[in-house]
Write a structure and sequence with these properties.
By secondary structure, the protein is of the alpha/beta class. It has helices spanning 40-51, 71-80, 92-108, 127-148, 166-174, 193-199, 222-236, 253-256, 336-374, 402-409, 441-459, 464-484, 494-512, and strands at 14-15, 28-29, 120-124, 157-161, 178-182, 204-210, 242-245, 269-275, 287-291, 303-305, 312-314, 323-324, 378-380, 389-394, 418-420, 429-434. It is built from 13 helices and 16 strands. The strands form four sheets. The chain has an eight-stranded mixed β-sheet with strand order 5-4-6-7-8-9-3-12, with helices on both faces. Strands 13-14-16-15 form a four-stranded antiparallel β-sheet. The chain has a two-stranded antiparallel sheet with strand order 1-2. It is globular.
Length: 517
């Protein structure tokens, strides 16, 4: 959630609504609860009027989160919104539906299911919570092993690429785990497995691989990482495992790239998280994490409560519960509506339906990519194999930047994010379009048309890069002349200027940003 700050007691902090004045004439305070009630029609109209100023979700191409579902599914979700189904005695059918979802996902990820080894999973409110839970399990297992060996257990670390989503940084900071990041490089914007394994030491609780980078949609090479780690573990006697963050790619790879080995087919992969509200095709509020076996989730992390009528095991940051596959041991996590919606999508679409949706998304992404290349102005950074998105940058940023393009596209209603790459590739600034199920070919064509208009528009404007460079140069001249008298500022290279401009725009975007996708 976005952190909100309180506001002082100012007399002008009131809402006035034109249509609501049919029902009420007194203004409504913004930051204090009103003293009196008002008609439901007025409350609805006041809120509805303000919400019109929000962006259009389906034109928000920054987000991976599902923005369209079938009316039949929405109807079921609405009917279930009042169920606090954490009480499995009260809502046994909803509980069973989540159990079925975990089973389906476990089979989809090739979890070993049998008498000797049984996968275990849990529903969450999203991949962020799922990653926190998986990370805690790795940390606790590592601590147990170190205690048994009589070794220090106070300095755990985790190895990731610099391209990981911010939730990994949150996990490291909140739960006191050192985050060791593999830096990126020009042309290679995912974690290098070789460098990752080199960073592994006896204090590494796990290596986190990303199946679908947030930046470019690319799949990291989990198979190579697994093979290299097996070799290192054998040489050192360590037992460093792998977690796969498949938030974006977990519902893509099984349908489009079944031959890519990234899941529980690899022995060192001990847990996988996936977002149901991304390419699982459910509205925001549901994620999943599955462990290879019960042994990979320390039992001491699972709490047992009985104040809701029966013994209920719970492992959660948000009252989720453990779920064994093919057992009568259930799981609870996200809201009942999202869980039911996930089950609806699974039985409504089936394997064939999910495959059709993902293939269509990839086809629209390819059409968008080809349209961008045809302008001759862009370079594509995303790969053909990965999440259906297009990440691209300007071939020539000496006059105008991707930040100007993103800013101007908002006039046409499009929300297309512009950002700089992480450590060691900060000078690369890109635009990214996420292709979801509801991004049709006609919308892709309209976006290309609007991008062409934007390019023509900014070409007629003065170069902001030159203006920024001139400002920087003038500032340097002023400082140098003031301190040394007659010394002129050194000329900057084009790359230095581009880095400064990218930093300027990045800071500007950070100031405007109100939340994360």
């Amino acid at each position: 959630m976005v952190i909100s700050s309180t506001s002082g007691d100012r007399s002008d902090h009131f809402l006035d609504c034109t249509f609501a004045s049919r029902y009420v004439r007194n203004p409504v305070p913004k930051f204090r609860m009103p003293e009196s009630s008002q008609p439901k029609e007025a409350a609805y109209q006041i809120i509805n009027d303000e919400l019109m100023l929000d962006g259009t979700p389906r034109l928000n191409l920054a987000s991976f989160v599902t923005t369209w579902m079938e009316p039949e599914c929405e109807k079921i979700m609405m009917a279930s919104m009042n169920k606090n189904y954490v009480d499995m005695d009260e809502y046994p059918v909803t509980t069973e539906l989540q159990n079925r979802c975990v089973n389906m996902i476990s089979h989809l990820f090739n979890a070993p299911i049998g008498e000797a080894e049984t996968a275990i999973g849990v529903g969450t409110v999203g991949s962020s919570e799922a990653i926190m839970l998986a990370g805690l399990a790795f940390k606790r297992k590592w601590q147990h092993r170190r205690k048994l060996e009589g070794k220090p257990f106070d300095k755990p670390n985790i190895v990731t690429g610099a391209n990981v989503q911010v939730c990994w940084e949150k996990f490291a900071r909140y739960f006191e785990v050192e985050l060791k990041e593999v830096k990126l490089s020009d042309g290679y914007y995912v974690m290098d497995p070789v460098k990752a394994v080199e960073m592994v030491d006896e204090n590494t609780i796990c290596v986190a691989a990303i199946l679908g980078s947030t930046l470019t949609g690319e799949f990291e090479d989990v198979k190579l990482l697994n093979d290299l780690l097996i070799k290192k573990n054998k040489e050192t006697g360590w037992e460093t495992p792998i977690h796969v963050d498949a938030a974006s790619g977990g519902f893509i790879a099984p349908f489009l790239y079944p031959d890519i080995e990234w899941d529980f087919r690899l022995p060192l992969v001990k847990s996988i998280n996936v977002s149901g509200h991304k390419y699982g095709l459910v509205y925001a509020g549901v994620g999943w994490v599955v462990w290879r076996s019960k042994e990979d989730l320390p039992d001491e992390l699972v709490f047992h409560i009985n104040y809701l009528g029966s013994d209920q095991p719970t492992f959660t940051l948000n009252f989720s519960k453990a779920c064994f596959v093919n057992k009568s041991y259930f799981c609870y996590g996200a809201g009942s509506s999202q869980i039911i919606a996930q089950y609806y999508q699974f039985i409504r679409l089936g394997f064939e339906g999910y495959k059709n949706v993902m293939e269509n998304c990839m086809e629209n992404a390819r059409a968008l990519k080809e349209g961008l290349l045809s302008t001759g102005r862009f370079k594509i950074l995303s790969k053909d194999i990965g999440v259906p998105l297009v990440a691209f940058t300007l071939k020539d940023s000496s006059k105008h930047t991707v930040f100007e393009i993103a800013d101007t596209l908002r006039k046409y209603g499009w929300i297309v994010p512009a950002y700089t790459m992480p450590a060691n590739a900060e000078h690369v600034a890109v635009l990214r379009v996420v292709v979801r199920e509801d991004f049709s070919r006609s919308l892709a064509e309209r976006l290309l048309s609007d991008i062409d208009k934007v390019l023509k528009e900014i070409d007629t404007l003065p170069s902001r890069v030159s203006m920024k460079a001139a400002h920087v140069s003038a500032t340097v001249d002023e400082v140098v002349n003031a301190s040394e008298g007659m010394v002129n500022a050194a000329k900057k290279s084009i790359e230095e200027i581009q880095k400064e401009v990218a930093t300027y725009w990045k800071n500007l975007v950070e100031r405007k940003r109100t939340g994360a996708c």
